[in-house]
Amino acid sequence: MLIKYANLPEGVVPMRRALMVAAASCLLALGAAACGDDDEAEPAGTSGDSQEQAALPEVEFTSIETDVPEGYDEPEPGDYRLAYLNPVQANEFLSTMGEAMRLETERLGGSMTELDAKGDVDTQVSQFNQLIAQDVDGIAVFALDPGSVAPAVERATEAGIELVTIDLTFESTEDIGQFGSQVWQRRDEAAYLGAQEMARRAGEGGQVATIDFAIKVPSIVYSIERGKHWAEQFGLEILGNASNPSDDIAGGQQAMTELLGKFPDMSGVIAYNDPSAIGAAAAARTQGNRDLVFGGQNGGSDALEAIKAGRQTYSARLDPISMGKAFSWGLYNLLEGKEVPKTVKAGAPEIVTEENVDQVKTWEQMLEEEYGG
Predict the structure, then answer these.
(1) Which of 330, 293, 329, 335 is nearest to 311 (CA)?
(2) What is the pLDDT of residue 1?
(3) What is the pLDDT of residues 121-149, one digit of tens each?
């Protein structure tokens, strides 16, 4: 199957334990808050706006994600005891995912326990073992380090506990070990849409750089690599990369300062998350450059506020509510003995810009609409 987006309207592999807490902070990219440039900002990427309507290469989205089904079939109600291993509950994206799972599980007649690892691998392993001892019916595992929880996955399977996970592998829809199913966040599609928006604004032949995270978390590495791939397909030139050392706005400023030193004539930045894009824009403003295009990913409240204020150009917004709901439906179906796909994908990503940001609801508002206050 091919999906055409060219003419749309605008709009963790195992690591050394010593690095695990630092690597966990990558998850905070989805909703992190940090100090940044407080100067009054003009809209980011204003000069690129004049090139938005330039003809772009017609690029079709082809991906392993394409033929993966979106979500699971709706299950029958039941009184099941589910659990969610949340790596960092303070994170807006991850807490939204957990809240959606809880609300959907309760709607189906069950109950859910959410345990917060606070970014610590040992804590998450201990919590996993705790849930096995409590003999819950099913667990949604968002692992800080898949290798570290592997023994607990085996014990849970032996105990008859159903398991689902997220973004375990990006190369196979079937090889997911002992998990019953995995949910993909649609990172490849988000990378495609972000590259398309960058090309609209920077223009074909625009020279752009990327910002990744200093800890090479597989999902972030994959997202940036796919962003580079699609950027080149849309006719952009990738100049180079700098790493955010701290996974926050300040780290984005530091990375952008490095990029500007190497590539002073660059047109824009594709960042792995919104805080990095916000920090990059702040660094550029400090040097008197307000005309670059700053693209991020996730689309949480930090991005919506920054786009409204002109401190970020666009964000490729993901759908954590559909992910949490999928956790619940997947576990229910497995517990009811139904066959489920080994891999499903979340709701479609979307591009948020200054043109549509006022119409975009926050995740909290979306949850209230679906489940009530």
Answers:
(1) 293
(2) 39
(3) 899 999 999 999 999 999 999 998 889 99
Domain boundaries, the chain: 3-64+187-317, 81-185+320-347
Q: Which two tokens stand for residue 288?
A: 């008197």
Amino acid identity of 361? Answer: K
Tokens of 225: 């690599």
Alpha-carbon distances, residue 365 vs 16, 188, 215, 351, 370 (angstroms): 39, 26, 33, 18, 9
Q: Do 3-64+187-317 and 81-185+320-347 show the same overall fold?
A: yes
> Encoding tokens for residue 36?
């940044």
Mean pLDDT value across the chain: 88
Pairwise CA distance, residues 51 & 54, whole Å: 5
CA dihedral 171, 177, 181, 185 (to 10 degrees): -40
DSSP 73: P
Class of domain 81-185+320-347: alpha beta
For the stretch 200-246, pLDDT in tens is 999 989 999 999 998 777 788 899 999 999 999 999 999 999 999 98
Q: Which CATH superfamily is domain 3-64+187-317 in?
A: Response regulator (3.40.50.2300)
Structure tokens at 132: 């096995």
